[in-house]
C-alpha cells in the first residue's frame, strides 16, 4: 500500500488567526508611516495591505463552515453505508477512546481539557487492531473557537497487546528537535536519523535499549517508506499524528497506509520487549531542544 497524497491546504484556523493579527498591525504601521513622513507609496502600501488582509480574513471565515459542512455530509452518507469499502467498522463517536487518550503524552492530547473522538474507522491489519478518527480538542477560546479547524486533528492509532513505556519517533522536519530532556536516541541508520528524532521516557541505558529493540531494522526501513509523521508509543496505544481531517475517502487512505505502517511496527516488536518492558507505563520528563 502507498502513502496517501498529503493535503497541502493551509488550516483555515491558523490563517484566520494570522490574518486577524496582521489586520490589527497594518493600521498601526500605516499611521506610523504617515506620522514619520514616509513616501506616499509606502503609506499606500500599508493601506492596501490592510484592505487585502480584511478580505482574506472574511473569505476564510466564510469558507470554513462550507468546508466543514461538506465533510459532515460526507461522513453522514458514509454512516448510512454509501461509499463504504473494505471491512472497516464505522462509529460516529467513541467517548471511551477519548477518555483513554486524555493526557496521552503527545500533541494534541497533552494540551487542553480533553477532547471529542468522532468519525472512527476501525479494522484489523494482520492481528493488530487499527483505527483512524477525528479528534477535536475541548476548551477552544476566542478566534480559535470561531475557526475550529485549528483545534481539529486526524489521528491514526494501533493497539498494543501489552502496555509499554513512552517512546516517541518525531518527524524532524515538522516539529523541530524538541524532545524530552536527556532522552534522545540515535540508530545506526543515517537516513533515519536525518528524518526522525527518537525520544524515550528517560536517559537511562535501559530506556535507550528499549528504543533500539522496538525500532528494528525492518521497522526503520518501513518508516522511511512513508512521509515522516510523529509516532508515539505509550500504554496500550501507538498513535500517529500530523494529518489533516477530511472526508471519508481521506480517512480510508490513511487507514490503509499509515494504519498499515503502525500495524507492522506493532507486529515486529520482539516478544522479549513485551516480557521486559510490559506494564512499565513511564511518561517522559521535561522538554529540551536537542
Element order, helices and strands?
Answer: HHEHEEHEHEEHEHHEHHE
Q: What is the strand content?
A: 15-25%
Q: How many DSSP H or I helices? A: 10
Percent in helix: 40-55%
SS content category: alpha+beta
The whole-number mean of residue pLDDT values reads 76
Shape designation: globular
Uncertain regions spanning at least 5 consecutive residues: 1-12, 141-149, 179-183, 286-290
The count of β-strands is: 9
Tell me the count of domains: 2
Rg estimate, integer Å: 22 Å
- Profile the largest sheet: 7 strands, antiparallel
N-to-C terminal Cα separation, in Å?
34 Å
Topology diagram in text:
Layout (H helix, E strand, L loop, with lengths): L11 H24 L4 H40 L9 E5 L1 H7 L13 E11 L2 E10 L4 H5 L5 E20 H4 L2 E2 L4 E2 L4 H6 E5 L4 H10 L2 H8 L5 E14 L4 H20 L3 H7 L10 E2 L1
Antiparallel strand pairs: 1-2, 2-3, 3-4, 4-7, 4-8, 5-9, 6-7
